[in-house]
Amino acid sequence: MISKIFSAAVIGLDAELIEVEADVTNGLPNTIIVGLPDTAVQESKERVKTATKNSGCSYPQTRVSVNLAPADVPKLGTHFDLPIALAILSASDQISFDPKGKIFLGELSLDGQLRPVRGALAVAMKAKAFGVDEIYLPKANAKEAALVSGLKIYPVDDLKQLLGALMKIKALKKQPTVEAGTILKNLQAALDMKDVAGQELAKRALEIAASGAHNILLSGPPGSGKTLLARAMVGILPDLSLGEALEVTKIYSIAGKLKGNFVASRPVRSPHHTTSNIALVGGGTTPRPGEITLSHRGILFLDEFPEFPRNVLEALRQPLEDGVVTVARASGSFTFPAKFTLVAAQNPCPCGYLGDGSKNCVCSPGQIFKYQKKISGPLLDRIDLHVEVPRLPYEKMAAGSEAEKSAEIKARVQKARGVQQKRFGASRTNSEMSLTEIKQYCGLNEAGQQLLKQAMKQYNFSGRSLHRILKVSRTIADLAGLENISNDNLAEAMMYRPKSE
Questions:
Q1: What local confidence, expressed as pLDDT, does residue 501 receive?
Q2: Is residue 215 one of the residues assigned to a domain?
Q3: Of 53, 80, 126, 265, which sits with the fewest C-beta atoms within 10 Å of its C-beta?
Q4: C-alpha–C-alpha distance, residues 360 and 367, integer Å
């Protein structure tokens, strides 16, 4: 007898429905799994065999064939344990139920307990798109899957409990749908902007960067507060929208980095400068998200920016421009979202004291040139805001700070994001504007056009720089509550461009 149970395979950041077919026939005891299973799926036969025995069932002592269809889709992970077990038990006439409209996933322990798996949210989203009604999965994944409304989510403790429910001995309790209000909560940042002495210009630039999701580069000598400022920026980021929360939670679920049931705040990733290309961008034999995708809708903080390998930094070009990263392998091409805000920090030279008024630089001109050229011009051109963070005198650091609190700055940032959401009708920011939208929303008066024209000639700004100046100007105008970009807004935006271009 052939039985069919439905499950799903996680591919990249998406899921695809999979039919798990099982056939029990006469022959020597042997279990064969086909359909491009990876090692974890191949090993499931041992987990399934022991788990079924320890759950009060008998494993067929004949030939068992399991097919995972469609056969040309790679099957990865341990979540096929549960559907394989159900398919074998159904094929051997030990259980009988209607599998239509049901999806099963879960890793089995040897005693039949269900362990959590990756990608439950992605599976739930795909299930809803295909009209599936019910999902049976480990209890630890239930709240994550319940973020998708319109589905019946059934948390399961062990195989024996599920068999009883399918045979209508004892019904399972359905997991309540998680309401949006419980997802989006405001977390207190560890460092408040008021705790960072001085650096008003840098704080203003960080406010602009947070408001429009603009990339920013902080340059200055050691100990000037670059890292503190970057860490304090977390406290002024706007709250995640429901759509953004689902996006980020889905990424972290598939990457196996989900702590709790969902991601409630914007992610902040800070990889070390020894990070490899694959770790940053994503990839591997079976491509998985890298740091830039894990920082989607949040911050990617790269401290000691020039110390990263050149090939790693150059890999940032496409995601900074397009908001996605495409990883091509022999098994296929995978596209991961990468709409992050890059916050980078660097010293002006190897010793760090070039241009510092209180300490002399000991680097040779050749060392300075080589150090500064580690970051290519095209990459620097993709960074919207370039800010100098000078060393503060003792009097400034010792004096009590009367700076604004992060909560006050965040309120303005949140308001500016609200303007952008109304403008674009979605969770988009000014940094994501297309050329058509730049023409529509970034119009200048005659005086502004003359000012921009003069700056283009004097500082040799590139076409990309022109567009980024207009985007930043639009964000500054939104912060000021202006419908049109003023000349002051434009002048401030140009102030944040490097003048050596």
A1: 46
A2: yes
A3: 53
A4: 15
